[in-house]
Amino acid sequence: MPVPIPGRVAEDLRRATVQVLTSGARHQGNGSGIALPNEHVLTNAHVVRGPRLSVQSWEGRNFSARVVKSDARRDLALLAVPGLRPPVVSLGDSDRLRAGTPVFAVGNPLGFVGAVSSGAIYSIGPLRPVQGFPWDLHWIQADVRLAPGNSGGPLATLDGQVVGVNTMVISGGLSLAVPSRAAESFLARLQNGPSLGVTVRPLETKAGQFGLMILELVAGGAAEAASLLPGDIITGANTLRFRYLDDLESALAQSSGPTLTLDFYRGGSALRHVTVQLRRGDLPSAA
């Protein structure tokens, strides 16, 4: 059921949503993007696969663009677009979303520039296992109508806070979006933010608790210096229990000081705690 959207809020978000155009010998398409400060655009990684890349602003001006960094697993990419100066948006807190929260999407589906659709949050969390899809990550599902060209555009609350990056349509016609918290973690990693220096894999402990098993340690990294070992299972940080793979990166991005206290299990022992001195670089990854 359509949700009424304040006209000024929708108009502001339309002006901050750009078209991302790609072209090449075997690929040509268009998607959407979210204007950020300092001439940058946030979009989906799958939108920028073509060899030639440009961005078109709300006014119809074309700008050359380049990929600063992308994360295929999280399906996010950051573009540098010299000269682009549209209104910019603010990222909201996707952790505050609940099923039933009214939201709306802006994008350029099927060539219709600045199209708006509305609906409500359906669910938040990991998806059912799907072959070849990172179902273990945290996703937003909403009953907002999307079509080709919406990918990379904003999913927002009725006050204009961007809480997700629209990504695709899944079975049942529901839309899938990357949560804004995951987008913030992605952007923080670009700024050489604090890291543990680990490669982790999500799993469920024997007690049914979500955890991240350490597979590898970066030599000289923060985790190694704190005497963490491969096989240790991290279950939380700063007294907050992890629920999703993104939570570790969120904890790092939101850390206000030089340390982070981790909860972890080693072998069959009881829950342990360790305070890690955070370092820059050697960012965590998932496998």
Report on the structure:
By secondary structure, the protein is mostly beta strands. It folds into three domains: 7-80, Thrombin, subunit H; 94-187, Trypsin-like serine proteases (Thrombin, subunit H), CATH 2.40.10.10; 192-286, PDZ domain (Pdz3 Domain). The protein is 11% helix and 41% strand. The strands form four sheets. Strands 5-4-1-2-3-7-6 form a seven-stranded antiparallel beta sheet. Strands 15, 16, 17, 18, 19, 20 and 22 form a seven-stranded mixed beta sheet that branches. Helix 2 (180-190) crosses helix 4. The radius of gyration is 20 Å and the shape is globular. Mean pLDDT is 85; it is low at 281-287.
CATH topology-level fold name of the largest domain: Pdz3 Domain
Task: Give me the side-by-side strand order of the main sheet.
Answer: 5-4-1-2-3-7-6
Largest sheet: 7 strands, antiparallel
CATH superfamily of the largest domain: PDZ domain
Q: Please tally the helical runs, counting DSSP H or I stretches of 4 or more residues.
A: 4
Q: Estimate the strand proportion.
A: 35-45%
Shape descriptor reads globular
Distance between the termini: 39 Å
Strand-pairing-aware structural class: mainly beta
Report the helical percentage: 10-25%
- Based on CA atoms alone, the radius of gyration comes out at 20 Å
Name of the CATH first level of the largest domain: Mainly Beta
Please tell me the total number of domains: 3
Q: How many beta-strand segments?
A: 22
